[in-house]
Specification:
Number of strands of chain A: 2
Radius of gyration of chain A: 23 Å
Bound molecules: adenosine-5'-diphosphate, magnesium ion
Helix content of chain A: over 70%
Shape of chain A: globular
Number of helices of chain B: 12
Order of helices and strands of chain A: HEEHHHHHHHHH
Number of strands of chain B: 10
Strand order of the largest sheet of chain B: 6-7-8-3-9-10
CATH class of chain B: Alpha Beta
Strand order of the largest sheet of chain A: 1-2
Number of domains of chain B: 1
Number of helices of chain A: 10
Oligomer: heterodimer
CATH topology of chain A: MetI-like fold
CATH topology of chain B: Rossmann fold
Chain lengths: ~290, ~280
């Protein structure tokens, strides 16, 4: 009896701890950001220019950073989701045993590459390619970051989708084939729909990786804080801004506090996305 | 291989056991499936040996024999479901309506449309009742909603399930009872309008009442379909089939009218099996 109780207490404790930690993070961010949020300067947050260090007038408009983050993330998802899901389908349903044996370790290897190294790849390899192909002034731009982020998100998407697809009962596939369906028809009409909740979870995790990634985007997106929807423009993301500026900002200054505000915005966006994901999954009865 | 000639001349229908030529309704004209010298291998392991037999149109043919003797494997050669298992091969001929189904130019989609299959464990898709039955017709290009409605209703009626599910066509098929699920699988197979229905121990996972329903259904369906049923229950074979084939370790030991097999089997092995002395 006491054993059961102990186990229960242990798990309750673990669950509570994680909630408390999240709460503390919010509290800590809030504490640092609060003096700015409750000052008259707060209106500056809604500006359209990010010029945090200036001899005349500092601008703390976070809009360009938000749009920068959204542009890169959106493009990355646009590349990563179809590529990841199709790869998973190929890997689990179409590839031969030998192909699987070669591809799986490669994908795991890709997942293990540090983001700094991927950033280097972006600067040295991808940037010149983009520059020359599209005749740009600079290859350090939103699409460069998006491609690299997609590359980083796909291993997650592939591995988890692959698991979900593999767990679809073979009896469904047999039934479909026996009704005269081709392999592809079986995949699209039976296998993928049945694995969909797992695939969605995989995509959400992949997106999580993309939104939180800092180092790569800092290195390859060009870091120009402008509001744009053009993939070939340089952009500056929220994560890159925090990472680049936090080290040099005077402690307790407005700039310092605004960086914490950005942290809160980032956290809220991630929370929101997570909640949407949960809703989607629950609606599908998973 | 002579498959091409076989294909062009559906008239080749030899090897009917002599004993059948005098039987009622068993003339060569109503042979639906003709199997000749079939050998089958999983990799290097041979599991069927020189099988030759005829399956008659609009009759129920039962395959009996101890577990592992190759009944399911043989059944799956008839709609080429073994093709999806890696490393399988065969030799010998299987003709349906006189056409070699293993000939190179055979269209597998057409073959499986003609030869439907019901599996041992009921396996409805995790979709609605309606979508389960409509799946086959959709695959074969029927998009029109009212046409699909008609097919679904007709198939469910044929499978004796319509009254039970007509008010819950949109609910998930997995919520049906085991017996209903298996009849849904039969309806799903009927929806593509096959001529032959292969059933692999369709009642083995069902309770006695559901089993009776499925057996009654089989008797009704044979009006319009040629049915091949694998069963490990000799009573079931005796109840539902017109012909019975007894397999043992990959050999076809005896094939005859069910009545004859169960009253005066020609082979000692058959007699031992049906009297329960082994297997
Ligand atoms: N997919 C497979 N791969 C290899 N061997 C198989 C496979 N399926 C069946 N077998 C073997 O073939 C033999 C016949 O099996 P099966 O046709 O399932 O017999 P039955 O249906 O009469 O029980 C058995 O020895 C079985 O182990
Ligand atoms: Mg079997």
């Amino acid at each position: 009896m006491w054993k059961e109780k102990a186990i229960k207490i242990f798990f309750t404790g673990a669950a509570t701890t994680s909630i408390v930690v999240v709460g503390l993070i919010f509290l800590f961010l809030g504490k640092e950001a609060a003096p700015f949020i409750f000052s008259e300067n707060v209106a500056k947050l809604f500006g359209t220019e990010w010029v945090p260090v200036s001899f005349e007038k500092e601008q703390f408009g976070v809009l360009p950073l938000i749009t920068g983050s959204f542009l890169v993330t959106f493009l990355a998802i646009l590349f990563a989701v179809p590529f990841g899901v199709l790869s998973a389908v190929y890997l689990s349903e179409i590839a031969t045993k030998t192909e699987q044996e070669i591809l799986k370790p490669l994908i795991e290897l890709l997942a293990g590459i540090p983001s700094v190294v991927i950033g280097f790849f972006g600067i040295i390899v991808l940037s010149p390619i983009l520059k020359n192909t599209f005749g740009l002034e600079s290859g350090l731009n939103a699409i460069n970051g998006a491609i690299l982020l997609a590359l980083m998100a796909t291993p997650t998407i592939i591995t988890i989708s692959d698991d979900a697809i593999r767990s679809v009962s073979t009896s469904y596939k047999q039934a479909s084939i026996a009704l005269g369906a081709s392999k592809l028809q079986t995949i699209w009409r039976v296998v993928v729909p049945d694995a969909l909740s797992g695939i969605i979870a995989a995509v959400m995790l992949g997106i999580g990786r993309v939104i939180g990634e800092t180092m790569t985007v800092l290195m390859v997106t060009g870091n120009a804080a402008i509001i744009t929807a053009n993939p070939f423009d340089s952009v500056r993301t929220m994560t890159a801004t925090i990472a680049a500026e936090m080290g040099e900002v005077p402690f307790g200054s407005d700039h310092y506090r605004v960086l914490f505000c950005i942290g809160i915005i980032l956290l809220l966006i991630t929370f929101g996305l997570n909640m949407i994901a949960q809703k989607v999954l629950r609606r599908r009865g998973v | 291989m002579s498959s091409d000639t076989l294909n062009n001349e559906p008239a080749i229908k030899t090897h009917i056991p002599d004993s059948f030529e005098d039987g009622q309704g068993c003339t060569p004209n109503n042979i639906k499936i003709s199997v000749k010298d079939l050998n089958f291998f999983y990799g290097i392991r041979q599991v069927l040996f020189d099988i030759s037999l005829n399956i008659y149109d609009k009759k129920v043919t039962a395959f009996i024999g101890p577990s592992g003797c190759g009944k399911s494997t043989f059944l799956r050669t008839l709609n080429r479901m073994n093709d999806i298992i890696e490393g399988t091969r065969h030799n010998g001929d299987i003709l349906i309506d006189g056409n070699d189904i293993y000939a190179e130019k055979v269209n597998l989609v057409e073959l499986r449309k003609k030869v439907g299959m019901v599996f041992q464990r009921s396996n409805p898709f995790p979709k609605s009742v309606f979508e389960n039955v409509a799946y086959g017709p959709r695959i074969h290009g029927i998009k029109n909603k009212s046409e699909l409605d008609d097919i679904v209703e007709k198939s469910l009626k044929n499978a004796g399930l319509w009254e039970e599910v007509k008010d819950r066509l949109t609910s998930n098929a997995l919520a049906l009872s085991g017996g209903q699920q298996q009849r849904l699988c039969i309806a799903r197979a009927l929806a593509i309008d096959p001529e032959i229905l292969l059933m692999d121990e369709p009642a083995s996972a069902l309770d006695p009442k559901s089993t009776t329903r499925v057996e009654d259904l089989i008797s009704e369906l044979k009006e319009n379909y040629t049915i091949v049923i694998v069963t490990h229950s000799m009573q079931q074979a005796a109840r539902v089939s017109d012909y019975t084939a007894f397999f043992y370790e990959g050999d076809l030991v005896e094939f005859d009218k069910t009545k004859k097999i169960f009253t005066m089997p020609a082979k000692k092995q058959t007699e031992d099996y049906i009297t329960g002395r082994f297997g």
